[in-house]
UniProtKB/TrEMBL annotation:
Residue stretches making up the Flagellar motor switch protein FliN-like C-terminal domain: 99-169
Protein name per its UniProtKB record: Flagellar motor switch protein FliN
NCBIfam families for the chain: fliN
Membrane topology of this protein: Peripheral membrane protein
Annotated organism of origin: Vreelandella janggokensis
Biological role stated in the UniProt entry: FliN is one of three proteins (FliG, FliN, FliM) that form the rotor-mounted switch complex (C ring), located at the base of the basal body. This complex interacts with the CheY and CheZ chemotaxis proteins, in addition to contacting components of the motor that determine the direction of flagellar rotation.
Locations listed in the record: Cell membrane; Bacterial flagellum basal body
Keywords attached to this entry: Bacterial flagellum, Cell membrane, Cell projection, Chemotaxis, Cilium, Flagellar rotation, Flagellum, Membrane
Amino acid sequence: MTDPKKPDQNISDDDWASAMSEQEQEETAASSEAADGEDEDPWAAAMAEQQAVEEEASAAEEESAADEAPASEAKAASDDVFRPLTQEGGATPSRDLEMIMDIPVKLTVELGRTKLTIKQLLELAQGSVIELDGLAGEPMDILINGYLVAQGEVVVIEDKYGIRITEIITPSERIHKLNR
């Protein structure tokens, strides 16, 4: 069994049993002193108990350090648990991509933008026309999760709108478009 705060330290059941019995003895001694009418500060008792536990832990740590095998003989657990990150064969990259293939993303086609005041917004009614900064015939922006990735043109296929990708945006063009 190991201490969760010190995973490399081995603690035997005997160590636990002796620590528990020692703690019980301290508790019974403290309760008998309190029963005798001796008014001891509970904070001082708690601090003394904590110090005793810390001293016991450091003694157990020194003892276990002496019992451990040399570091050269120790084998890293990570070799058994985690596979190395080397590319062995061509199947590994495709398997890694398969893990993300089912993650949904939000695709948005942006016709254009404009800024309005609150007054103009409140004056809008059915049939109002809002002027956008996009020009007629200009490619539409295609956004994935809010990031510009491509541009395209609107197409109609059987009573439904679609978008035909005409250009994939390079990183430098993405930065330029963000300033718009």
